[in-house]
Amino acid sequence: MSRTYDVFVAGGSIAGLTFASEAAKLGLNVLVAEEHPEVGEPEKCDGLVSLRGLRKYGYPPGAGVIQDRVDSAVLHSPSGKTFTVDAEGLEVVVLDRSAYDKQVSAAAEAAGASVMTGRRAGEATETGDSVTVNAGDEEVKAKFLVDATGPASSPKHGILPAAKYEVEGDWIREHVVEVFLDAGKYPGFFAWVIPFGEHKAKVGAAGRGVSPFKALDGFLEGRSTTVLRRVAAPIYIGGPAQSFVRGRRIYVGESAGQVKPTTAGGILTSLAGAATAARWVSSSIHEGRPSLLAGYQKEWEGEFVKEMKAMLRLRGAFEKLSNQDLDGVFSVLAASKMTQKLSQTDFDFHATALLGALGMPGLLKIAGLVASAEVRSLLLER
Ligand SMILES: Cc1cc2nc3c(=O)[nH]c(=O)nc-3n(C[C@H](O)[C@H](O)[C@H](O)COP(=O)(O)OP(=O)(O)OC[C@H]3O[C@@H](n4cnc5c(N)ncnc54)[C@H](O)[C@@H]3O)c2cc1C
Hints:
Layout: E1 2-10, H1 14-25, E2 30-34, E3 48-50, H2 51-57, E4 66-70, E5 72-76, E6 82-86, E7 92-95, H3 97-110, E8 114-117, E9 124-127, E10 130-135, E11 138-147, E12 159-168, E13 176-180, E14 191-197, E15 200-206, H4 212-220, E16 226-236, E17 245-246, E18 249-251, H5 267-287, H6 294-318, H7 323-335, H8 338-342, H9 350-369, H10 373-380
Parallel strand pairs: 1-2, 1-11, 2-8, 5-13, 11-18
Antiparallel strand pairs: 3-7, 4-7, 5-6, 9-10, 10-11, 12-15, 12-16, 13-14, 14-15, 17-18
Helix pairs in contact: 1-3, 1-5, 5-6, 6-9, 6-10, 7-9, 9-10
Bound molecules: flavin-adenine dinucleotide.
């Protein structure tokens, strides 16, 4: 049996479902295939996101989707120095990602898209003006294939294994996100605590060349904790892919590398990518002009590329800092008016905000502290 659609979407998570919803609203005939039997499951994401961003680029969360609000973020240096950002004005919340994905799936179906679960998208063959995708026991023909399969297709150099537990414990601070930096324990990344209710948190750890489960178990040692759920899932920190469109394949979300290289947060940038792609694919199909697809990458980059470059620059410097350097950076941040400045900026554009708030004097101060010449040139780059 063979069915024909305007677009076949592989992957039914936020990027695939947002694409489907927006494309269906624009009159396209869309089929989504999600390999798992239930949308949103198994849940891997912590759901930390700004409401401001969701209002601008995606769907505001419906009833029961927000699990918690975040009032502040506390960063811990290796020697125990802390740096606190007041987040009350930043509108940051913690989502139940499974519930949010189901909300977006319902929106896609209400707009006319078909969502089939328990169906893995397999091999795809392009012929002339269509692409044929193997989807289990049937072949589906479409004008375009949207790859929204997440880390399965994202550029391999940017993948980092991560471990995440949902836990209960008295030590969890209400409405406070905590980030723990240590170049020995979590090289190139960090351990994190994201609250999602009274004494409940999503905790995780990742680092280059370390076992994330060992790192997370080490973090929890001495913190009296009940583990409710364990998840192993890769995070992506490599920056946007070079091309979002290859032939009749269009990459959206994490498969296009639309993820923040600093924190691996990808909800917002992926939603924005998917919604942007839907508009350009729709124009391209309605006007019969495949060349219009190039507008998708141009528009997404116009919005995010400056921030992504700043994030990659910060990541490049961060990855080379020793624990002593990190402690020094905390001293500079604490001495400046950084706390106040960051509490008035934008959660989703935090790298340009941080670099702007530090300014050349702050960057010079940090550059003067670190041993590596490479880090100094990254920091002082113009
Ligand atoms: C532990 C962890 C914590 C995170 N925390 C946050 C956070 O707090 N805030 C934030 O902004 N981001 C966070 N992220 C990142 C965020 O989850 C992703 O960037 C975002 O989900 C990307 O959405 P996506 O739709 O592109 O891909 P994904 O959400 O990865 O979805 C891909 C989908 O494709 C399906 N699939 C894969 N292959 C196939 C196939 N062949 N056929 C059919 N279906 C297929 C998968 O089952 C999945 O449903 C976190 C990620 C991890 C791993």
